[in-house]
């Protein structure tokens, strides 16, 4: 007679309690998981309590482990909605407060994004429940793979929105030691492996439990060791670099009476830092189109001609036919002029993926309705007179890690210019700074981040903040930035090893699940 395998008490209790709770209180259970997702935002900046991430992931993983696929999907949806409502509420500030869109339109766009993002978490829950079948070993294999694969899809599908990727919560944790090897999705994967192993240990007994505990601890211990490894090397004399944060609020930036004051503010800052090799102004620091301020740019060229200074400044720019307008960074050094054009644009901010009749309605309502054009996917790096090459990302382009890798290993310094003034005194600028920290870790390069009113910063290759300052103020920061050479493992391979592994795991488990049983 076959013996029925004995299940650990924790497994039986969790299974019974969760199924009973969701069956008796379906809406209350969804609200509980909505709150759990909302609290997960605390593991990201500006709070940055990274140990909360595995703790708050545990309830939703238990649900994915114990419940049927449809139930898991419903709770996954609630969890994702909570995370993105608290994590991206600042969209309301940018759309309504500064974009001056009608309140109802701002709320619809914000809630629409939350719902779309929540469906990704519903899909994750369905996949994990469907393919793991409540088995601890399969769960440990499937849960990290499904989570990371869906995060990756969310980062590129229909332009993508990689905000709140789980790995970003770990920029200050031991797991950040893996970022130069496996990148942002690899950090997410390792966090999920560790958390899933803890859950599997709670649901197991005997020697198997010890194995799961060891699997849970291994990423943290090895990550702490890897944090001491320097994957790149200094490649020349330090570049004395100055960031100028104008502190011009978004509601005044484009006012006619503010224009001359802004031009003088930035030009004065250039004169005051004549000893710097590199001066960086933020995204669209000059609120105009380049061909409208040619005399001003000529004066800037004259100012820096004798100083051997390179100036980077953000401005709008047109092509020769004046048919396309670009969000650009211009580099001048007293003689030459170079340009980088933003290539990954913000939906509903820089372009509007809407039918013509909606665009006409927006025009009639005096709302922004015209599109910024995208630059080429791969562009020449900006070259300083001393030969140093700079890679530029404008605004949230730096959230797309793989798109920046073409610049390596040639680029010695990474530049990010942004205008986080759109988000006011919200959590968005802090989140964006954390994203820039991850880019520094992945590339093994210094990141220089210049924003209109914060948070500007110098970031070291290990992701640490070297220099920063307060928001909403005129601010200059100067630091000697050593260019770096070499490639981290992640810079060589990108996201493909991690994503391929995740896909193969899901495909293999899915194929086995569909095989007819003997």
Topology:
Elements: H1 9-24, H2 26-40, H3 52-66, H4 69-87, H5 90-98, H6 103-132, H7 136-154, H8 179-202, H9 206-226, E1 233-234, E2 239-245, H10 250-253, H11 256-272, E3 278-280, H12 294-305, E4 310-318, E5 325-332, E6 337-341, H13 356-364, E7 382-383, E8 389-394, E9 413-418, H14 428-443, E10 447-451, E11 457-459, E12 465-468, E13 475-481, E14 484-485, H15 489-493, H16 496-514
Parallel strand pairs: 2-3, 3-4, 8-9, 9-10
Antiparallel strand pairs: 1-14, 2-13, 4-5, 5-6, 7-8, 10-11, 11-12
Descriptive tags:
single chain; six-stranded mixed beta sheet; alpha/beta; 518 residues; Nitrilase/N-carbamoyl-D-aminoacid amidohydrolase
User: SSE string, helix = H, strand = E?
Assistant: HHHHHHHHHEEHHEHEEEHEEEHEEEEEHH
Distance between the termini: 20 Å
Assess the beta-strand content as a share of residues. 5-15%
Q: Look at the structure and give the CATH class of the largest domain.
A: Alpha Beta
Tell me the CATH architecture of the largest domain: 4-Layer Sandwich
Give me the CATH superfamily of the largest domain: Carbon-nitrogen hydrolase
Shape by Cα distribution: globular
What would you call the structural class? alpha/beta
Secondary structure: helix percent: 40-55%
Give the quaternary arrangement of the chains: single chain
Main beta sheet strand tally, sense and closure: 6 strands, mixed
For the largest beta sheet, what order do the strands appear in spatially?
6-5-4-3-2-13
Total helices: the number is 16
The residue ranges in which pLDDT falls below 50 over 5 or more consecutive positions are 1-5
How many domains would you count in the coordinates? 2
| Mean pLDDT reading | 91
């Amino acid at each position: 007679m076959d013996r029925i395998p004995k299940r650990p008490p924790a497994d039986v209790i969790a299974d019974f309690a969760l199924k009973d709770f969701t069956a008796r209180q379906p809406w209350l259970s969804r609200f509980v998981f909505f709150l759990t997702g909302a609290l997960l935002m605390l593991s990201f900046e500006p709070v940055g309590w990274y140990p909360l991430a595995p703790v708050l992931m545990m309830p939703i993983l238990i649900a994915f482990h114990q419940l049927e696929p449809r139930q898991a999907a419903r709770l996954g949806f609630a969890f994702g909605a909570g995370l993105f409502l608290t994590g991206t509420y600042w969209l309301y500030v940018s759309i309504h407060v500064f974009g001056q869109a009608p309140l109802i339109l701002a709320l619809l766009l914000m809630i629409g994004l939350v719902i779309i993002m929540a469906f990704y978490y519903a899909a994750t829950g369905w996949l994990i429940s469907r393919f793991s079948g409540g088995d601890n070993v399969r769960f440990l294999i499937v849960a990290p793979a499904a989570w990371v694969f869906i995060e990756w899809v969310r980062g590129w599908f229909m332009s993508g929105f990689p905000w709140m990727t789980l790995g970003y919560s770990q920029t200050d944790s031991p797991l950040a030691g893996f970022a130069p090897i496996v990148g942002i999705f690899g950090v997410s994967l390792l966090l999920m492996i560790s958390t899933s192993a803890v859950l599997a240990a709670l649901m197991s007994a005997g020697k198997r439990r010890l194995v799961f505990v060891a699997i849970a601890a291994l990423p943290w211990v090895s990550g702490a060791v890897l944090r001491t490894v320097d994957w790149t090397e200094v490649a020349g004399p330090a570049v004395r670099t100055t960031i100028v944060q104008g502190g011009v609020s978004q509601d005044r930036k484009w006012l006619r009476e503010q224009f001359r004051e802004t031009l003088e503010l930035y030009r004065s800052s250039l004169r005051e830092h004549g000893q710097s090799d590199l001066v960086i102004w933020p995204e669209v620091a000059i609120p105009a189109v380049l061909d409208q301020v040619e005399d001003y740019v000529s004066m800037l060229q004259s100012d820096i001609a004798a100083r051997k200074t390179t100036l980077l400044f953000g401005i709008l720019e047109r092509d020769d036919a004046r048919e396309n307008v670009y969000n650009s960074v211009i580099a001048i050094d007293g003689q030459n002029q170079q340009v980088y054009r933003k290539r990954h644009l913000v939906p509903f901010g820089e372009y509007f993926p809407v039918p013509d009749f909606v665009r006409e309605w927006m025009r009639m309502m005096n709302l922004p309705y015209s599109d910024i054009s995208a630059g080429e996917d791969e562009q020449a790096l900006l070259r300083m007179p001393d030969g140093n090459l700079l890679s530029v990302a404008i605004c949230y382009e730096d959230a797309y890690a793989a798109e920046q890798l073409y610049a390596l290993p040639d680029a010695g310094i990474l530049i990010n210019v942004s205008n986080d003034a759109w988000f006011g005194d919200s959590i968005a600028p802090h989140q964006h700074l954390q994203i820039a920290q991850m880019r520094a870790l992945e590339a093994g390069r210094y990141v220089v981040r210049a924003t209109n009113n914060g948070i500007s910063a110098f970031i070291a290759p290990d992701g640490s903040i070297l220099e920063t300052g307060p928001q909403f103020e005129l601010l200059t920061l100067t630091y000697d930035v050593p260019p770096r050479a070499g490639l981290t493992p992640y810079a060589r391979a990108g996201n493909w090893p991690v994503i391929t592994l995740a896909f193969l795991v899901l495909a293999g488990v899915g194929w086995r699940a569909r095989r007819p049983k003997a």
